[in-house]
Predict the structure of MarR family transcriptional regulator.
Amino acid sequence: MPKSVTAAQVADEFSRTAKILVRHFNERLGEHGVSTPRSRLVVEVARSQPVRLTELALAVGIAQGTASTLVDALVRDGLLERQTSAGDRRSVLLRVTAQGAALAQDWTAGYERAAEELFEPLTAEQMSTLVDILRTLSADETPATGG
Amino acid sequence: MPKSVTAAQVADEFSRTAKILVRHFNERLGEHGVSTPRSRLVVEVARSQPVRLTELALAVGIAQGTASTLVDALVRDGLLERQTSAGDRRSVLLRVTAQGAALAQDWTAGYERAAEELFEPLTAEQMSTLVDILRTLSADETPATGG
DNA sequence: AGAGGTTACATTGACGCCAATGTATCGACA
DNA sequence: TGTCGATACATTGGCGTCAATGTAACCTCT
């Protein structure tokens, strides 16, 4: 018999856990000299370049303006390149630089190890279930891989 | 057969969904003229007053310094009261004011409705499963109700 | 009593993030 | 061609958050 929980309880627990995990993640990635959002962006661009800014924002779940600001800093730091799209000059295509690609590789490893550590208490089935539930919750705002 | 997912995929999905939900939550609560963190704090104090600052931070999942700053603003706004503990003069006991209690009631209702709306796509069993998983993930940093 | 380590809270500087808004480009249509 | 709404990105002001650190009270042990 599943203990019945209210939606508010779920929200509280979700919010609390999310914040705790974010702190731990930042702590782990800090050892690589980078913050979670920055590494997340660079790794995502490396994975699916060239990528438009708005697509990138959608993929990582942040607002477009936030992505713009963060990307700006990453470009200044020489990790990403902006390139105006030939077909649509409003669009910006993002790619990693050589330096960005190298760091992305290091950070991906750190990211994966941090994730394994944080989700270690879950069984494989729980992880799969969790992902299903998360995708259900964010079904409205899903990148192209939606299907 | 559960699709196997990597820890990094879980982390990505978790982070993305958390940010999306936070945005939606803020949007809903904005209609009540309050932000999610502020309402969350006031409601939590109303629920378990008197409560120490650090306990409160743990309950909502934020760092102690963050709680201090937020509480400061809420005290200035007349929603919360600080009171130095008689037994341990380092400690601060928090309570809601009359105004804070009234608003907490309104916000609790808004909070609950927002949560119901956001978690509406989940079945009762999924919600229960989700809470189990979340508690497992944050088992290290659990308030006194730890069990 | 008082020295030294510990605990509870406050403060600070920097960052991530948002909503709202501004600017340039695009596309359709008169 | 020029106009108008829509789209893609950039900018801005403000909040929430953190880690790191400071200050005061507590506790133990001598």
